[in-house]
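Task: sequence design from structure.
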């Protein structure tokens, strides 16, 4: 294992996409850890302002962006702002402008300004689709399957070609407070009193705790040895669907209560209920190995079982409407 070497501490860190699901807790965590933060968001007024954080408005990334004012006095950048894979009405051209085009301008401005490091938050979708028969590592040939993934891969290539000092982090699906999508659906199912037809499914999927995503960003900012590298980032322990449901239900004091159902029948039921989108994420494997990042010295803050259980309890206790 290669021992991690601490780089000089960043000065002023620009975080783009700072009011989103990852951005807001990232900004708060970095501020608590003593980083000086300039937080850029399309809706800065919508975010609570931690002490010592400067909030600025992020221009529309689909248009021309002058990055120089945002980079004034900045030593490092964490670039989270991007088109999301589930945003309605997103075409190939918009993905290209918002994800790749904006990154090209940012990388050029960062290099011209002599920035210390640009940490690009990318996605595992730059490397693979929503399932994979083999364990995914950084050495797995990149084969994105949709415009979102292709735009992420092209943004990564543009950053490397720019010559700007950088680290690229490819996150898998993140869970944490306020999570939406498939994880939120599983949590709703876990709260129901009914047995669920999941016990036959043994495919495993990698997830990423929000706390672990934040610790990976801090690692990318602080460590000398990771400069110029690309990492896939996931909790080390992928889980099968019955295991996830058991963890979620145990967290609120319930038995797993799962039973077998033939896969074709479950697929049909999902389609009839209008949730065909759940079929692959729930029943097909996507195992992502963070071995390279672990070998560099990153240590996740918590394991998947602990993280999912804590999230389930927190969401259970959350007052309605918050």
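Answer:
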């Amino acid at each position: 294992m290669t021992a991690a070497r601490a780089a000089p501490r960043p000065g002023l860190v620009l975080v783009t996409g700072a009011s989103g699901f990852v951005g807001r807790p990232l900004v708060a965590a970095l501020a608590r850890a003593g980083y000086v933060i300039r937080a850029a968001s399309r809706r800065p007024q919508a975010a609570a302002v931690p002490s010592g954080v400067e909030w600025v408005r992020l221009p529309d990334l689909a248009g021309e962006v002058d990055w120089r004012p945002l980079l004034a006095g900045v030593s490092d950048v964490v670039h989270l702002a991007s088109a999301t894979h589930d945003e309605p009405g997103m075409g190939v051209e918009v993905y290209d402008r918002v994800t790749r085009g904006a990154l090209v301008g940012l990388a050029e401005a960062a290099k011209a300004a002599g920035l210390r490091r640009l940490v690009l938050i990318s996605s595992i979708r730059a490397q693979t689709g929503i399932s994979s028969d083999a364990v995914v590592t950084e050495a797995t040939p990149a084969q994105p399957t949709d415009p979102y993934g292709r735009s992420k891969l092209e943004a990564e290539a543009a950053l490397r070609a720019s010559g700007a000092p950088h680290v690229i982090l490819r996150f898998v699906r993140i869970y944490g407070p306020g999570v939406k999508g498939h994880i939120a659906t599983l949590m709703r199912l876990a709260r129901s009193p009914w047995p669920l037809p999941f016990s036959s499914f043994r495919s495993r999927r990698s997830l990423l705790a929000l706390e672990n995503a934040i610790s990976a960003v801090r690692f990318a900012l602080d460590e000398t040895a990771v400069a110029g590298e690309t990492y896939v980032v996931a909790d080390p322990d992928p889980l099968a669907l019955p295991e996830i449901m058991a963890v979620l239900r145990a967290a609120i004091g319930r038995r797993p209560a799962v039973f077998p159902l033939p896969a074709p029948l479950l697929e049909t039921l999902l389609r009839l209920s209008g949730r065909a989108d759940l079929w692959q994420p729930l029943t097909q494997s996507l195992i992502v190995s963070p071995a390279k990042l672990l070998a560099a010295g990153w240590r996740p803050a918590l394991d998947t079982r602990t993280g999912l259980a804590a999230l389930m309890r927190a969401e259970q206790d959350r007052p309605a409407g918050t």
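Residues 12-171 form a domain with the Rossmann fold fold (CATH 3.40.50.720).
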